[in-house]
């Protein structure tokens, strides 16, 4: 059991970038005690072997993944693993009464057919998958609050959906015109040694990838369709940017009503996010920089209208490892625990 | 006069990034002798004071700008100055018989009304402006070859137009659907000390700027309209990327004929550029990286089709200071001089 | 007056990098209320005009610098100004009873002759300067605790002195052999637009500057001499590194006793810093990375001995804007206020 | 056989960073024809699969490594392989009459005992190893010119030795005081996917490695000893810098004659390198930036004297993949072939 009054929590998959963010956030979170770190390849190693600079604060050793054990010690479990593993572990944890937050794609889809079509695998956990709530609090706050299983959104979908939601929900755009040109730092590729993510390759260079076929596309479309009330297809293009952290989604769409001006839309965005402490809509003419969000759970949104083309251009920035991953998972945990949505999460980026 | 057989050339505005590229290219060019460097604030300084690493190859001093003098000593003059200065200098140089290549915006527009609407100023040089040829050899090779005055394209327009031209010329897309999401290294901002271009500000960050109002928009539209045969309005959004050099333009447009597949388009692009030594159309599934073009005059183009949305996505990369500026000017000079288009220009980027 | 129980504090010079760090740290500090921001060129502007991403947390406007006013409203005042201004302002503030922490070089020297020899100016405030305490808590904790005026150390001296102090204090090295090869991110140059700090110039490049004449040299020597008990001259060479934040000081010195091995020295360092919560001495064979300290007030120290040369090599890393500047000032304020040295300061860097 | 008059050359190990530099340099070199590329893991692949941006210039396929074949087709062979492989291949090539340039450590040591002590392995090729010439033309120009086998220097030794040679050769310093604090871009780690070389890890960070035990130490000491005429031990510390290319060696040493001033030393350096086209000694007060050398075969050297400490500080910069690797190999080939030392090698870095 945890400290007096603190909820005991654990992380399965503590060695990657998602893991190390969670470790830091949960160690500093006033509501929880981090009691368990699990991993496969790194089992048996002190966490400080992997991240020496955190040794003075984190005195835990990576343990093997034993689900019964984990359930016995933790009330809340974060699964921060490659796609295709969580859905084999979560059922046991749920059965034992744990709350589970999965950071992979496994529980992001309402139907497992869409999942298997894009991610492969052979799943027959229809009921559990259907019970999972999509962990984007700005859209599904109440459902998350009462969920036992949350599928945390991908990094690109988070930035894209926060930009698109007010427009789709209010019917302000022609959905089929939506184009998301997204740019991400290389930490989105995880802590895996791949040639194209080497500094020598990625630095001072820039390119698109996964054009017209990136696996975050169906995830974005699923939620867009939910918001629009009908099937929506979007254009989504990710780019790799020579920087560590941060995502910018530049979103283009044609306005239904060409009479709308920038200030109208800013008003609408502000109203839509008036109860969302982690979304900041910027004043007219101010466009967000990814660095502003770095290290925080914030999403900054800039809105522009081009009267020459009747398009709205929305720019949203997040830290891909915070609001795009670990921070959002903690935000969801806060809701699931009845705490303030902002509890224990950084509000101010350092600069520069 | 120059070396035996070499054409004497000069650069007005030799201290900036455009200038230093030109100096290097012209020093290594087998057809010319660089005999004059001019500038205002740096007049009197040895060039090697500004760029010490080139001192061993460039033994020239920046001279004051005396147009009579320049015309007496140079057959070809490059003007590499802030917007609004070239149109005051070029007339004298032209009158004296010089060939003039202007790297600013001054001679990019067929009519000076468009220029003054976006750049300001009070011009009454309609005839001279109208006589200037837009220096994009892939579109206007023959006209450049016989021009006396060339207005070299902007960096973003170069990347954007090379991506769009085959599509517009062949009528393959709905022009009003064209969206150009462009990304540039910070050297595009020139060698001027501005806070937002500091490494401490710009590194590890990313943002859009000039949304819906960047001055390269009318330049792109002017040429797109020429290609399409009617007025075309495009969406153009530039972004500042934490890197030194390079532009990627990611261009989206809806296909008129949804039956076209990627390979059809690659064939069309290859045909369009079959005589263009500086454009390389990539094989299917290969997307260009800006680093590939770095230091060369090349433009690499990748083409993708999304059958889910009936859109074509074209990605073009250039080095903004080479094909996007100084390299293209030298390419134009080659044509104006009756030389091979590739003479004296780097063909292979170093890597990584 | 401040919040119930919170000490009202102010910052003179809030617009630069030191200022914005202080703003963030003081806004999140549980012991103080930030009630005043002052500046000259930016007076009248909302702070959020300068740093839009902090607008949601910092609702203050930069005010003109009126010392009477400041003293009336603030118990503690941070001066974050260019060298040569603080010594004209501090006397008034001190007289009115404020505690003053100066982040410039003005109060770092026990005698003003050394100051004027290296920094120029015409000072006749010998007594006040002599009363200032050098704000390096790891060496002068008690004196800082009872000080009214603290001269906060420079960024390079902080990293250098934390590496050298145990060696000098214990007489383990020949002081005249000490060489400090220091490397800093470009934010050390401040938020001033200078050509050599542009991303286009500084990125992917590296060089030394101020060789044999950098103004942090006498500051380092003053404290080294104090520690050694006699005049010490050191070799100090700073380098500009293509990154935003962070300093690494690689310090070389010849051991008096060649029999000492690495583990001996690590033991000595650990003992020296056993009460220093912000210094972490690393295990044998672990060398610090600047990123580990980024955003925190920590200094990580790695120690190596080369038995082939009888030299010790000490590597210390800090965040130049935190332990090297604003964080250290807050650490000093904590001591001056009778609070825990760690109060309100970040302990864990995010990574990567 | 090659083009009329061109020497047929081959590269074994064409896929790594050393390989791709050699490919580019040899393709553009007027004296040779590149007829063979060999590799193991990449055998059978078109070179353009590995480096798509060079496909338009390099129409070669990686072939398996068949030494008889290679010798039959190539007069000059570059071995660009991990340490420990060249000494198994070179003998056959030499026997068949090829000239061999090895870029690994295999042939850098006059005696194989030193090699095996630092690199391991079980060698019994004493005679061949002893016949190899150390490929630093600025020191061993004549011997290289008549060599059949050249062991090309490491990147750090090249920068270090060019800084130290004039001092040691003239006996100007106390050799045992020499400290080399070296800084390298991450491409020095090769094109191998290692976690610590990922952009997400290495960017915006900085650290030392291999302190007091890096394998370039004995290589530096061997040549220093040769120059000094007695055994010399040096302190060598490499650092990883968040940039792609470039090395800066900051070298400290105590002057024998404290009366020497900076200008004396610059004169001595200029005299020492008066016939060395690839070394540029800078004017007093100018310190080299790594970017100046980037893409060229140049070494820029800055010299400073600190009269307070009687030390000389020499700063040398090179491009680690050019003068530090492939460029230097081509420079050696030029000498071995009786060509100008500068033939086919880039002289002017682009900037910025």
UniProtKB/TrEMBL annotation, chains A, B, C, D:
Residue span, Semialdehyde dehydrogenase NAD-binding domain: 8-147
Protein name (Swiss-Prot/TrEMBL): N-acetyl-gamma-glutamyl-phosphate reductase
Signal peptide interval: none
Lineage, uppermost ranks: Bacteria, Bacillati, Cyanobacteriota, Cyanophyceae, Oscillatoriophycideae
The UniProt record lists the keyword Acyltransferase: no
Function, as annotated: Catalyzes the NADPH-dependent reduction of N-acetyl-5-glutamyl phosphate to yield N-acetyl-L-glutamate 5-semialdehyde.
Homology family: Belongs to the NAGSA dehydrogenase family. Type 1 subfamily.
Any Gene Ontology CC annotation: cytoplasm
Active site: 155
Gene Ontology MF annotations: N-acetyl-gamma-glutamyl-phosphate reductase activity; NAD binding; NADP+ binding
Keyword annotations: Amino-acid biosynthesis, Arginine biosynthesis, Cytoplasm, NADP, Oxidoreductase
Reaction it catalyzes: N-acetyl-L-glutamate 5-semialdehyde + phosphate + NADP(+) = N-acetyl-L-glutamyl 5-phosphate + NADPH + H(+)
Compartments, as annotated in UniProt: Cytoplasm
Organism (species): Aerosakkonema funiforme FACHB-1375
Pathway(s) served: Amino-acid biosynthesis; L-arginine biosynthesis; N(2)-acetyl-L-ornithine from L-glutamate: step 3/4
GO BP terms: L-arginine biosynthetic process
């Amino acid at each position: 059991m945890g400290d007096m009054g603190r909820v005991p929590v654990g992380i399965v998959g503590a060695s990657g970038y998602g893991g190390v963010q969670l470790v830091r956030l949960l160690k500093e979170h006033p509501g929880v005690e981090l009691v368990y770190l699990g991993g496969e390849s790194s089992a048996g190693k002190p966490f400080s072997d992997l991240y020496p600079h955190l040794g003075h604060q984190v005195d835990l050793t990576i343990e093997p993944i034993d689900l019964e054990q984990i359930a016995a010690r933790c009330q809340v479990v974060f699964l921060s693993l490659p796609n295709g593993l969580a859905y084999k572990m979560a059922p046991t944890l749920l059965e034992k009464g744990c709350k589970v937050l999965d950071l992979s794609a496994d529980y992001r889809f309402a139907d497992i057919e869409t999942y298997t079509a894009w991610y492969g695998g052979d799943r027959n956990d229809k009921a559990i998958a259907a019970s999972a709530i999509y962990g984007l609090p700005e859209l599904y706050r109440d459902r998350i609050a009462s969920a036992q299983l949350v599928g945390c959104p991908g990094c690109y979908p988070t930035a894209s959906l926060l930009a698109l939601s007010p427009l789709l929900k209010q019917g302000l755009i022609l959905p089929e015109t939506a184009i998301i040109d997204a740019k991400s730092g290389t930490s989105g590729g995880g802590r895996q040694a791949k040639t194209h993510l080497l500094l020598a390759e990625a630095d001072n260079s820039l390119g698109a990838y996964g054009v017209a076929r990136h696996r975050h596309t169906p995830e974005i479309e699923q939620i867009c369709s939910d918001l629009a009330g009908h099937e929506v297809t979007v254009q989504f293009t990710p780019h790799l940017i020579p920087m560590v952290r941060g995502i910018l989604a530049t979103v283009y769409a044609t306005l239904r009503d060409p009479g709308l001006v920038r200030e109208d839309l800013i008003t609408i965005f502000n109203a839509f996010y008036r109860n969302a402490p982690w979304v900041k809509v910027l004043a007219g003419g101010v466009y967000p920089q990814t660095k502003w969000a770095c290290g925080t759970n914030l999403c900054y949104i800039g809105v522009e209208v081009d009267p020459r083309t009747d398009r709205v251009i929305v720019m949203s920035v997040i830290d891909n490892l915070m609001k795009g991953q670990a921070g959002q998972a903690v935000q969801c945990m806060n809701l699931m625990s009845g705490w303030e949505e902002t509890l224990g999460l950084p509000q101010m980026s350092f600069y520069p």
